[in-house]
Specification:
Chain lengths: ~140, ~475
């Protein structure tokens, strides 16, 4: 089998209107969960690693790795920049380093992405159980 | 059906106060003037995700308990802890925050608000450099140049542009809304013509747009309100702007310094800074210097990226430089509806806007040491009270690991992600819907939050819950002293 394509990218986190609407509805609502377990990618980058929309994507940084769904970014072109809305999924891979001022580094994090059709996107309960051992 | 007018919306820092709600049988059935988030809150607050009874963790499971029992447990956790954290505060009223500060002092803990993970660096910079700012009303009526930097109000503050800046009808500056509509119509027509030509004659694939900023359009030199966006992605807000500057990730500092140099008429020896050609920057600086009232709004694109508070230092210095030549103001785009209020109440009560440590009996402030993220990373706290916030959903996993290992109290109307990890969950009334209070808009204007409907039976306001915990803490402490 051919080696799966990997891509070095910069991870940006932030707000989306879907996440905003979801969080007001309830943090355990499907609307919120669907809005934050995704990754917006430049369509050109999706071609580079050979994936289509809504396929599972493994994002790894030196702080951890997490599986989310890849979505085509409507904000392209932004080659080698991926965007994930704030939420429990992206927390796994962001940089907690505060540089002694209290603020973790939540934007501009070096990351590696690769397709991973054999791993599922965890549900909120599974993710919390895996990370913290509590339900 | 009764309609309640002039309601303040308790969602984002824009604090729109023109919402009209139709109420029927103690239920909100219609929202007028609100954005998508406002509607979602007013129509969906009472959803199945609401917690209606206090919960307590027994044998690893959260089970229902009485309000008194939950208060007693919360007070016990806080009095027994050596170094508790009291975190959140940005989505509740100033009145509740005031009681929270009293509680933090009583238990000798660290009290911190969500500014620590949003505009904390901005507060540090303001303390170092100072801030030339004004109210949003002044900007609405007078500003003829609006810049959003590292901020996407279309998603995070949906009505900001329409109420306070470019598309607001001011007394001295007219709305640029019609111009925007014309631009959209022209673009659509152009796209249609282009695609028909392609289909009919060329049979070519559409060309990929250039990612690097193009020359500033001629509209930048016209009279009237101008609108510039600086961001790493072409956000929806950027699409609406007259000119969009795409900065490379983590290069905002360089771009701001280049703009400063150009404002001071200094030469720059490179062709591009942060991926943006110098000629483009020169034209932007020209627009900045020649405006009569400019306003720069900045978001977390500056505070969370490389440089953090130094980015804000530079933005503030740029505004200082610009004020030598014209009138310019700057304002952080505050996220939670009362994060500005949290900073304000913290400051008038303790002298510091966030990260206040009471463990020595007096308020101490040293960001990097007394900030909640650092305390959790150093694994120093031994209990936490989280109110009106959801750190498990928004903090890096490494910090949350320590937060959930220790006793955790959550006060929130909804079952949020943090509540799932909690040992005591006390449901509260929604401030601005079921309880009244005061909140500060992002420009430090205090606005009243109204009580529209009655809360469900047995549900109290944040302020009342905190008062009850405080009274219980004092009772336990008195008892301990008597016994000793």
């Amino acid at each position: 089998m051919a080696q799966k394509a990997k891509l070095q990218v910069t991870l940006i986190t932030g707000r989306t209107i879907e996440q905003g609407v979801g969080k007001e509805r309830g943090k355990t609502s499907p609307k919120y969960i669907e809005s934050v377990s995704v990754c917006y990618m430049d369509p050109e980058d999706m071609k580079k690693i050979g994936i289509s929309e809504k396929t599972n994507l493994l994002i790894s940084t030196k702080h951890g790795s997490v599986v989310v769904k890849a979505l085509k970014s409507l904000r392209a072109p932004h080659p080698n920049v991926i965007f994930i809305p704030y939420g429990p999924w992206v927390n796994v891979v962001v940089d907690p380093e505060t540089h002694s001022i209290g603020m973790p580094s939540l934007k501009g994090i070096p990351a590696e992405i690769e397709p991973c059709s054999n791993q599922p996107v965890l549900s909120l309960e599974e993710l919390l159980k895996k990370q913290f051992g509590k339900e | 059906m009764p309609v309640v007018k002039a309601v303040t919306c308790p969602v984002c820092g824009s604090l729109c106060d023109d919402i009209e709600l139709t109420v029927e049988n103690n239920n909100i059935v219609k929202v007028k003037n609100g954005c998508a988030m406002c509607e979602s809150k007013f129509l969906g607050y009472n959803s199945e995700h609401r917690v209606l009874r206090p919960l307590i963790r027994k044998n690893g499971k959260l089970i229902e308990t009485s309000f008194e029992e939950a208060i007693r447990n919360a007070a016990k956790i806080l009095t027994e802890a050596n170094y508790p954290i009291l975190y959140g505060w940005s989505s509740t009223s100033c009145e509740a925050i005031r009681v929270g500060l009293e509680l933090a002092e009583e238990v000798g803990g660290v009290i911190d608000n969500t500014a620590v993970v949003c505009h904390g660096p901005s507060l540090l910079s303001v303390q170092e450099v100072g801030i030339p700012s004004c109210t949003l009303g002044q900007i609405r009526h007078r500003a003829d140049l609006i810049i959003y930097w590292g901020s996407n109000p279309w998603s995070a503050h949906p009505r900001h542009i329409e109420r306070y800046t470019t598309y607001a009808e001011g007394r001295f500056e007219k709305s640029a809304w019609k111009g925007y509509l014309n631009k959209i119509k022209a673009l659509l027509a152009k796209k249609k013509i282009e695609s028909s030509i392609r289909r009919l004659f060329l049979k070519k694939k559409p060309t990929v747009h250039e990612s690097i900023s193009k020359e500033p359009p001629e509209t930048l030199s016209r009279k009237g309100r101008k609108f510039i966006v600086v961001d790493v992605r072409k956000t929806k807000t950027a699409e609406m702007a007259d000119y969009f500057i795409q900065v490379e990730p983590n290069k905002d500092y360089e771009l701001l310094q280049a703009l400063r140099a150009l404002v001071r008429d200094e030469e720059i020896d490179v062709d591009k800074v942060a991926g943006v050609p110098i000629e483009c920057l020169e034209e932007v600086v020209d627009v900045m210097v020649n405006c009569s009232f400019g306003a720069l709004f900045f978001g977390l694109g500056l505070t969370m990226s490389k440089g953090k508070l130094r980015n804000i230092d530079t933005a503030l210095s740029l505004i200082k430089d610009l004020n030598m030549r014209t009138k310019f103001v700057l304002m952080p785009m505050r996220g939670h509806f009362n994060v500005t209020g949290a900073n304000t109440v913290f400051t008038w009560q303790t002298g510091y806007p966030y990260a206040v440590d009471f463990s020595l009996g007096y308020p101490r402030y040293n960001p990097g040491e007394t900030t909640v993220v650092d305390i959790l990373l150093r694994r120093e706290s031994d209990a936490a009270l989280v109110i009106a916030s959801d750190p498990v959903a928004n903090f890096p996993t490494k910090t949350v690991e320590h937060l959930v290992k220790n006793p955790l109290i959550v006060i929130d109307p909804h079952m949020n992600v943090t509540s799932h990890m909690a040992d005591v969950v006390i449901p509260s009334a929604f401030v601005g819907i079921e309880a009244e209070g005061t909140a500060y808009r992002m420009d430090h204007v205090p606005l009243p939050l109204k009580k529209i409907v009655e809360p469900p039976n047995g549900i109290h306001s944040d302020e009342e819950i905190l008062r009850r915990i405080l009274a219980e803490v004092r009772k336990i402490k008195n008892k301990n002293e008597e016994e000793a």
